[in-house]
Amino acid sequence: MEDVTRLSVTIRSFSYPDGTRALRDINLGIRRGEFVGILGSNGSGKTTLLKAMDGLIRDYTGVTLLDGTDIRKLSPKEIYGKVGLIFQNPDEQLFAPTVFEDVSFGPLNMGFTGSEVSRRVGLALGDVGMEGHAKKSIHNLSFGQKKRICIAGLLAMGHQILLLDEPTAGLDPMGEYKMMNLLTKLNREQGVTVVMATHSVDLVPLFLDRLYILSKGQIVRSGPPAEVFTAPEEMAQVKLRLPHIAELIYRLKNEDGVPFDNIPLTVGEARKQLLALLPTDITLNGKAGGRS
Ligand SMILES: Nc1ncnc2c1ncn2[C@@H]1O[C@H](COP(=O)(O)OP(=O)(O)OP(=O)(O)O)[C@@H](O)[C@H]1O
Ligand SMILES: [Mg+2]
């Protein structure tokens, strides 16, 4: 990851026209190639913050810089050439009758010719695992497929920064993993900078580099998952919880006195630590796979 800040957000205060103060004292930076999470409970300000990062919300005090320029001074075309926002609800984003028409809308508007548009649509559908669905009616897609088509639409335009609002919400557990794997692949293999809003605490430690926790419109904590996920009581204060596996180990450590060194956030880490604590003779013939 290069140390180049693509997006820098400083918002002292933002209120909606009805007076609801949705953001305050926000200070965050997104570096090129990062995979960052904005974690927060319902109503904490995640969608509002993503909209500010996409230039959709402008009347706040403060400044959002996209590659060093105030996003409010950029034209929509200049913004959308770099940054794309995937809405929380795919039905608000998709509008064309078929998959091909929807995904080709962006590149067509950017002025690409027919063959280049087809090439871009083909590649984008391949990236999201939806090749072969170009002629399908949007209406007949499953919810998870619609979310993938939304991402394809932005990829076809060649966005370098993807802002995703709850990309895993409404997906089944396998769909959640597939979506996170897709985003990880885009991030690692194609260098797309990814910012996602979520409240899926179990998924976050497996995939994300860095997290910001939002509560009541403010960033209350930030850092790598291992620093941000602390005690269950502190998570409860911001209406979140620890990942299930971390909660189990936390209780074993603090209530039952099992001597864990730290609180693992993933099943893989927990397995290693448990195996290290168990006597060799009760593990499978002493062949404890996770001991290394
Ligand atoms: N258009 C609007 N007009 C007035 N208030 C709004 C508007 N949109 C959001 N809000 C308020 O702003 C606050 C933050 O809302 P936001 O949608 O950003 O939260 P969120 O973290 O995305 O929540 P969720 O997890 O439910 O999607 C909430 O108090 C909400 O009621
Ligand atoms: Mg939201």
What would you note in describing this structure?
The protein has 12 helices and 10 strands. The chain has 292 residues and is of the alpha/beta class. The protein has a domain of 47 residues. A 6-stranded mixed β-sheet has the order 6-7-8-3-9-10, sandwiched between helices. Strands 2-1-4-5 form a 4-stranded antiparallel β-sheet, with helices on one face. Strand 1 and strand 2 form a beta hairpin. Helix 4 crosses helix 5. The longest helix has 18 residues. The two termini are 28 Å apart. The mean pLDDT is 90.
Question: How would you summarize the topology of this molecule?
Answer:
Blueprint lengths: L4 E11 L5 E11 L3 E6 L5 H8 L7 E6 L2 E2 L5 H5 L2 E4 L3 H4 L5 H11 L4 H14 L15 H14 L4 E5 L7 H18 L2 E6 L5 H4 L2 E6 L2 E6 L1 H4 L3 H6 L6 H11 L12 H11 L15
Helix pairs in contact: 4-5, 4-6, 5-6
The structure holds adenosine-5'-triphosphate and magnesium ion (MG).
Are any ligands bound, and if so which? adenosine-5'-triphosphate, magnesium ion
Strand content: 15-25%
Q: Which whole number gives the mean pLDDT? A: 90
Please report the number of helical segments. 12
Structural class: alpha/beta
Distance between the termini: 28 Å
The biggest sheet amounts to: 6 strands, mixed
What's a concise summary of this model?
The protein is α/β, with parallel strands linked by helices. The protein has 12 helices and 10 strands.
